[in-house]
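Complex record, three chains
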Amino acid sequence: MTTAPALALEHISKRFGEVTALQDVSLMIEAGQVHALLGENGAGKTTLMHVAFGMIAPDAGAIRVQGRPRTIAGPANAIAAGIGMVHQHFTLVPTMTVAENLALGGRGLLRQRRLAAKVREVAAATGFALDPTTMVETLSVGAQQRVEIAKAIARQARILILDEPTAVLAPGDADELLRWTRRFADAGNAVVLITHKLREARAVADRVTVLRRGRVAYSGAAAATTIHELTTAMIGHEPIASQDAARNHPASAANTSTPTVVLEAQHVTVLDAQGRERLRDASLVVRAGEIVGVAGLEGAGQRELLRALAGRILIASGSLRRPAATGFIPEDRQRDAVLLDRSLTENVALRDAGRRRGRMRWPSLAARTRALMRAFDVRAPSAESTMRTLSGGNQQKLVLAREMTPERQHGEARGPVAPAPQALVIENPTRGLDVRATAEVHARLHAARAAGAAIVMYSSDLDEVLATATRIVVLRAGTLQEVPLDRDAVGRAMLGLA
Amino acid sequence: MIDALTPFLAATIRTATPLALAALGELLVERTGLINIGLEGAVLAGAFGALAGATAGGVAGGYAGAMLGGLLIGALFAFCVLVLRADQIITGMALTLFAVGATGTLYRALYGASGAALHAPTSGPWAIPGLTAIPIVGEALFDQPAVTYLVYLLAPLLAWWMANTHAGLALRAIGERPDAAAAAGVAVTRVRTLAVLAGGALGGLAGGTLVLAQAGTFVENMSAGRGFIALAIVVLGRWRPLGVALGALLFGAASALQFAFQAMGWGAPYQIFLAAPYLLTLAALAGAMGRARAPAALGRPL
Amino acid sequence: MRPSARRAWPVLIALGTVAAIIAAIALLLLVGGYDVPRSIDALWTGSIGSWYALTSATLVRAVPLMLTGCAIAIAFRAGVFNIGAEGQLLAGGAGATAVALTLPEAHGLAVVLALAAGTAAGAGWAGIAAVLRERFGVLEVISTIMLNFVALYVVSFLVRGPLQEPTHAYPQSSSISETVRLAHVPGAGRLHVGIVIALGITIALGWLMRHTAAGFRLTAVGENPTAAASAGEIDVRRVTARAFVASGALAGLAGAIEVLGVTYALYEDLSPGYGYTAIAVALLAGLDPWRVVITALLFGGLEAGAGAMQRDAGVPSTLVSVIEALLILGVVAAQALRVRRPRGVGAGDDPRAGASHSASDSAAWESPS
């Protein structure tokens, strides 16, 4: 007798305006199994799971739990149906305790003893160490994730959805989590593991489903699927030979002398708003033609390091040497780098706006914008289009174009596109981009490097850092350390086990 | 001097009552991460509602009308901000202007443009037997209109509710991380709507207090900035019910002081006393803002 | 949107707005049981139905509305919610009066000095709130409103004390001497040369906003302070502080001009709420000084007409405040509806898109051209 799947998503479709996020997607999750949901950025994995968890209402399709149709109109319904979700960005209230976070969403009176007992109960069930009275914001990222998981377990989740759980973890912790996931499934529960990492999927999953552009591109038993098949399904065609060759060449073969130092930090310390040291005594030299990759767990000080190098924040002590115009691409482009409701020209003019004087020469700024759009293949009706109307990928490309090509003089541009900037500081450059756009961005970075730029790049995706950088530095709790370009060495350094 | 203390305390509590009501209402709103600058409008709408209600149905009708008036402003705020996603600050400002214009127009249209003061039935003080015998504070605290006793009960009740119920926890969570609350199954928009409506009703009640328990009449713009002062009291009270109640007392005391000073024959121009509450608000905000920790999601776009 | 269609929009919206206002007034009058034709007729004659009405009622009111409208536009554009134009206007009036009464003889120079004093007073009054915002993090919405009340009481004190007219019978200052008054525009009733100042400043401001780096910085800061600081390396604190003070200066100038050109003396009711009407003026103009000229005229006419409506048809003049408030709500709602953000989590990108601190982020102001 075949039992019904623990969770069945049937013919789910969803559009956002003109964009089709999901098209007739069906997914069957069995109890006792780990089902990996693969796909590149923007394929629809998170969207699909948000439908399952009730955070998004589908345009079409149905959901069954244990064979019975359920209406999932919101997270409350999903939780009642036994579905729990561990989100990529934790949904915890930092200023509340572990017990309070676990209690959120309940009914009736809050009884402290009952809450504490509940926490102990969940701790025993999961094997996690949970202290009811600890305030969540004081916990490490790994510990916070365990609280996030505990939340779902506390509400008796039998179907657990994990959204890119290893993205914020060091390699060792990631493996530990995957082992826990396996144990949880073996106990009779169902697990959906959203990931873009093929290795992970094959290591722990029983079944694999690949989404591409909102459709199911492949579904089958994990053991019976090769990496090649998965990759092809994810990107839609045969994988191209890797770009690794490009990065290991020195900056310019013709350049025989030592490349010039472009960025130099000496004993830099940065404090946060509360006076705590976020970056301590960091020293770094970046030369022309280098891509220095920065690796580290979330909150290790990379935000501060990058912004200090780019001259966007004040340093408490130490010295910094950098070119006058240092390009800076922050992680959250929409929030920190663009004016969504202004034109593309105005967005391009934003760079260096603090130093401009006198009149704004809009015609020449518009011409420069058009030139940048051509050079970086930014698709938009015109330079006067509103930034908001561009797709995420095109917005990124415009920001890249703006930061990688400074104007020669204040307010004036000579010729279509100036050569690469002397220094470029980037945070998570390909976040949210699909494979093609990611490849384009990487290509540009390599081109800039070849032209003599000095680049400092942070990515929370360790594989990206390892594949792109010519040197690696690791940040751990505010301290900077250079390490060899080797996955294990980096992983150990991130955890302080070097 | 001692026998001046009781009237002083009584005046303090009298002045503090409407401020506390409005501030407690706004407290609920701000703990869900919203700011309703339209509170002033709710108070004024409540004052007019009290007049209209009292003319029709006595004191009870007056208080009902007051809450209805405030509720209306709250409902408009909820609609514009939660449904239409309009900017909170501007919406609040517009609602206050709307209330000023609407109450003025309605007053003149319904009750004549001559400006003759209408006399609404007022609710006199209810002395609580026994408690009024307490020396000094007895008469001040327990010989007040009923609505003041409501405040005595409401502040601790809210404090208990916020700390000891799941609903209170949910409210607080929304003000810190609305996405976390949503992911835990809390109906964020519904809770916010209820909070805004409650805030409006309490603001209206404050306005009703001005008419029914104090002035006995309606005057255009009679809220005189009390709604804005209440906003400051929320900050001063660090977004906690008991702190807010104390903050309201502080303002009440400051206002009562001015009468005491006047009675003692200070030669200062009387405008200083009129301006005192507003200056005090500025000072309180300047002093409090840094040290108080606001709900993290306060004022963020939705 | 195709260029030709884009240019047609603003005109259509403007006409539509006027039509909507008339319709709303008619509706309210109907509900209130007033004589609609008579009221509308009074509204018309009182505002633009005659040359006298146009110049001496509408245009005279348009002058302070233009300047305070600019004041609000500049401030809101920079993300500063200056609701204190009313108090800043009063401060300006007081400053101008004080100077005008002390230096009556110097003719043109006295006028200039009085105007400058008013401008400075308004700037200073706004400066108080600016410092409170900057140094202590006090919400300027609350502080500027508090200061409005304080300004009123300061003026009340002045006109009953140091500046009171010699007979001590009325709460107002002495009338300023003829030599310090702003001349009337020949053939235009009570309209005075302040209109030239107001128009000039408004047009200059519009140009500054569009074509200078300073104007661009202001816009960037108001749109997205984080991006302005990070991508533009703009000193956000300095830009907002300057915008705040400039806003106060403009409102102060408005007050000074009112005293020197209309009232010739200082008293408590110097402003029938210009500072608050200015919010509607500025918002309806999309925070663009060049459009403020038009909306200031519109509201000047509305308020002039409202006065006539009350006199001739018994309609409470406060009705206009209701219309203004509804207009503000309408504008803000329309803006919000047009710029619907990608809804919530799961739209592919960052689930917390748009998480900034300023409430002004949520409103999207129309671009100037």
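Note: The radius of gyration of chain C is 21 Å.
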